[in-house]
Structures are given as C-alpha cells and as structure tokens.
Amino acid sequence: MMRRIIMAFVGLALIGCSQGQPKKIVMKSNLTPAEYHVIVEKGTEKPYTGEYNDNKSAGTYTCRQCGAALYRSESKFESGCGWPSFDDELVGAIIHTPDADGRRTEITCKACGGHLGHVFVGEQLTPKNTRHCVNSISMRFTPDSATQTAVFAGGCFWGVEHLLQQQLGVLTVQSGYTGGQTKSPTYEQVCSGTTGHFEAVEVRFDPTKVSYEELTKLFFEIHDPTQADGQGPDKGQQYHSAIFFSSPEQQAVADSLTQLLKSKGLNIATCILPLTKFYPAEAYHQDYYQRKGSEPYCHARVKRF
Q: Contact, 175 vs 189, CB < 8 A?
C-alpha cells in the first residue's frame, strides 16, 4: 500500500479559459504521489482502474484537491472508455482549455486548477453529445445518503443561490418555491402573490465539511434579515426572509441564531417555518448568476456573527 505523504505544493498556475482571460490560481495540495501526478502534473490513471468507473450510486462528485462540487450522478454514463464519463457539469465548476496542439480540450477544476481529464464532443453517445472523460483519482464521491439539506428564503433566489454555492461543503443549490398552497406553481403564479409561496433555495451539503449552523449563519449574513416587506427593491410576500426546518435540530439552530442576533440589537424579521413541499423553479432560474457571469444586485455578505 502506497504510503501517504504530505506534499505541500504551493504555486501559481495560469489556467486558460476558453470563455475568458486566463486567471491566476493558487494551488495547495495534500496529496499522495499518485494523486499529485494526475491532479498537479496532469497525468492520467490507467483505464478501468479508477474507483468510480463503475459507480452507479446517486450523489455528487467533488474535486479531490479542494472539495468543490463538479458533477452530479445523473450526468454520469457508461461510455466504455475506461474512465468515468459525464455528459454535463455543474454550472461554473469547470474550465475548458484547448491543448497546445489543438487536438483535445483539457478540463480543470475552476476553484483550484486541479487537472480532471479531457472533454470530447460530437461522439453521439448521449443526447447532449458531450463526454467529460475524468480521472477517478481527481475526484471524491459523496453519496446522497450521506448528505443533508437546508431550505432558506431571502428575497430573489438568484442571489441567495449564488452566494451559498460558494461555500465549501455545499454540493448543490436549487432555486424553487415552498411554503404555499398551490401545487407545482409557476414563476408567474408565485409573483402574483396568490399562491403563498416563497422564492427559496434547497441546499444539499456534506455535513462532514460544513454544518447546518454554519450554513444558517451564512444565510443570515448574505441578506437583510431585518427587512419585513421583502428584500431590497423586491417587495412582496414571496420575497420574505424565512428558514424552513425539516427537523427539531434544525429548528433549534434557527431559533438560537435568531435570538443571538436579537441580543445584538437586530430586529429580526425572518420567519422560522416547518418545511413543506419544495418545488424546483423553471430551468432558466437555475444558476442564474453563474450563467450570466455577474454578481447579485441586492445580496452581499455582511458580517453579523
């Protein structure tokens, strides 16, 4: 068995992006020699040897070097190439860089620059016509059975989603609607104010990397929990601040943090409500700021704890 050693590699790498200018990324590694060879030195593991090549469990694949979420299991498919294959990536998670010879396109983790593998298009293997060929050793897998969820509402879900996505340990964030009485509401129905729903986000997270309390603190800091009529310029019931708990433990955390903020002199307007059915919003609402390449107009982090 290969002895694990600590390889402290700190360097600046210029990672090119086909969608913009190269960016400087500081990489810090605590890897085995085999992991270092693939992730930092851009090597390739032998085909059919990776631990995730045949993995069919539901869950999220994250960067082994930094923990950033990269792929969902729904995008994984059997290509017969000998390496894990995906036909889609989590929005904003990966950088595509053409090789110098123009023959292939390298894929790297956007958060840390770690090498993942290569992406190919035009093979007609799935309807999306894309194959991310990824080294297992570049990733870790977190099964859904080992994750937890949190649901928050803090005004327009675009900004809340965007800022929560950047927290280490957060695997996915989905915009949607909850708290109302209309089944499967549309955005137009929710905006009418007649359904009782809040614009909310459902956060799937790895509790070994970030706790529910840490996420709730972050939620309180990325919106104004003292505004009672909405959030910023967005006014109406659907934009109210709320925490939707799914267990007594989550309720206790929300209550405790609310009381702590009140003790600091803040007039907290955030509602603490039992979670009801969460309905995912329309596709064009998901990953809005990631796709647009901009920052939220009415959400910014303010230190409160």
A: no
What span, in angstroms and rounded, lies between the C-alpha atoms of 28 and 4?
A: 16
Cβ-Cβ contacts under 8 Å for 228 (sequence gap 6 or more): 240, 269
Helical axes 212-221 vs 157-164, angle rounded to 10°: 130
Catalytic-labelled residue, pool 63, 66, 109, 156: 156
pLDDT digits (tens, 9 = 90+) for 138-156: 999 999 999 999 999 999 9
**Distance (Å) of CA 50 to CA 33, 111, 203:** 15, 23, 29
The full length of the chain comes to 305
Alpha-carbon torsion angle 45, 51, 52, 53, nearest 10:
60
How crowded is residue 59: how many other Cβ atoms within 10 Å of its Cβ?
A: 21
pTM for the predicted model, two decimal places: 0.82
Q: Is 109 a catalytic residue?
A: no
Reported as a single tens digit per residue, the pLDDT across 98-136 is 988 888 999 999 999 999 999 999 999 999 999 999 999
Single-letter amino acid code for the residue at 119: V
Whether residue 17 lies in the annotated active site: no
Among the options 66, 109, 133, 298, which is catalytic?
A: 133
Provide the pairing of β-strand 198-205 with 170-178.
antiparallel
